[in-house]
Amino acid sequence: MSRKILFILNDPPYGTERSYNGLRLAGALAKRPETEIRVFLMGDAVGCAIAGQQVPNGYYHLDRMVESCLRHGAEVGCCGTCMDARGLGEDLLTGEARRSTLEELADWTLWADQVITF
Question: What gap in Å lies between CA 98 and CA 96, rounded to an integer?
Fold first, then answer.
């Protein structure tokens, strides 16, 4: 039986390490066959899923970390209201990350055995 874990990230992609650490843990758990992982990005965290980020050498690329989660079977939803508030279109999202809704977050919360927030 698989364990279902939902990650909810709120912090911006850069400036703090909360979203970075949330994606690190989500990515590590997504690699395990006994887990099903879903990641919901809201608030400034929607910026984590913007494709093609240019960061200085030595900095982590959160878009690549989102892609790694996706490659290992995780689902990634981005709050549509939060995207609109920041002028972000779905065409800017990396990989299979997609625009989502609060209603879907509610469904994912009920689906999950465990909810972890960063």
Answer: 6
Summarised one tens digit per residue, pLDDT across range 23-78 is 999 999 999 999 999 999 999 999 999 999 998 888 889 999 999 999 999 999 99
CATH of the domain at 63: 3.40.1260.10
Sequence letter at residue 9: L
Q: Which residues form the domain of 9?
A: 3-117
CB atoms < 10 A from the CB of 54, how many? 6
> CB under 8 Å to 39, separation ≥6 — which residues?
6, 7, 9, 22, 23, 26, 66, 69, 74, 75, 76, 77
d(CA 4, CA 27): 14
pTM above 0.85, yes or no: yes
Main-chain dihedrals φ then ψ at residue 17, nearest 5 degrees: -110, 10
